[in-house]
Amino acid sequence: MAPERRDALLAFLALGDRLKHTLRAAHTGARRENSAEHAWHVALIAITLAEEVSPRPDMAEVLAMIAIHDVVEIEAGDTFAFDEAGLLTQMARERAAAERIFGMLPPEIGQRLRASWEAFEAQETPEARFAMGCDRLQGFQQQVECGAAAWREMGLTKTRSLVRMQPAIDLGAPFAPMIEALYERAMAEGLLRTA
Amino acid sequence: MAPERRDALLAFLALGDRLKHTLRAAHTGARRENSAEHAWHVALIAITLAEEVSPRPDMAEVLAMIAIHDVVEIEAGDTFAFDEAGLLTQMARERAAAERIFGMLPPEIGQRLRASWEAFEAQETPEARFAMGCDRLQGFQQQVECGAAAWREMGLTKTRSLVRMQPAIDLGAPFAPMIEALYERAMAEGLLRTA
Q1: ipTM of the assembly?
Q2: Staple B37 to which of A36, A93, A96, A108, CB 3.0 to 4.6 Å?
Q3: Which fold has domain A3-188?
Q4: Which residues lie below 8 Å from residue B63, measured CB to CB, with a gap of 6+?
């Protein structure tokens, strides 16, 4: 292995550490959740639910997408699903970050990882949709389990929340019944406003 | 989906949140790293290095192993690689935790996830060895990048460190050259003692 290739790989992997300091809107315990531990939790959901959908998705693709899906947040930051101003600039910020981050790698590796990220974003394959369902389920369950301070602070309504969650519900089982049970709990606990 | 099955899945996924509070010996920034973000970082290494080894391992298996490999630490805690007393009881603690944690799931899912964990532990397949290489590389690089306070505190020698790292070095490229470069840096920066 050429020293330049070795050093490029080490530099990219060292950069990965920074995703542990990209904070999300949800809490875990008394602190904010970060995007690295979120991504692990999404992978746990994916392997747990892998055989609950038919046909079974290609799990190598699904888990690669999940591992890479938030890496651009190292530079672009996490954009809360209901941050309207942030959402307007999210795509441009994330694309610029992708150029820099994937550009650190030997080209064929950078292109392969970028292709996984693009495939997740494009939502055109069963694998991308399954990964999206796991991602949305994690974000939703994390808020419900941790008291949803971010939802309560902004007065989030169930209707507005559903704009975010409907694509995951539309995947059917197992996502729909799990998310519906979490909505029931969120409403019962006053984490979301009616309407 | 039967409500009992749905609720068992939700309870298992909610339990997963606790791995974000299992602290490791390494630091990330000013705080300790947790096992959930570690597991994500190992997955990032795996997808980055997937095509650097030949034959290419089955990445669905590798990434499932990586996602599950530390889940027993939710109950058993992380055991530092050089904690001799902890290592003596590690297997018994982790097996008891596995019984309880995987036992929360519908049986066929619990058995499948437990099989991934057992396969990683057994180190009998190319996939398990590749996942181990990624796990050791992450732990080592994390210490080197963050100043290795835990190594310096215990006066860890390179010889003793190699007992832990040799299985990953023995995998050859890309692990060997990357780990060797990190050793050079660790020695130059005084993170490990000579001998």
Answers
A1: 0.97
A2: A36
A3: Hypothetical protein af1432 (1.10.3210)
A4: A43, A59, A60, A63, A64, A67, B43, B46, B47
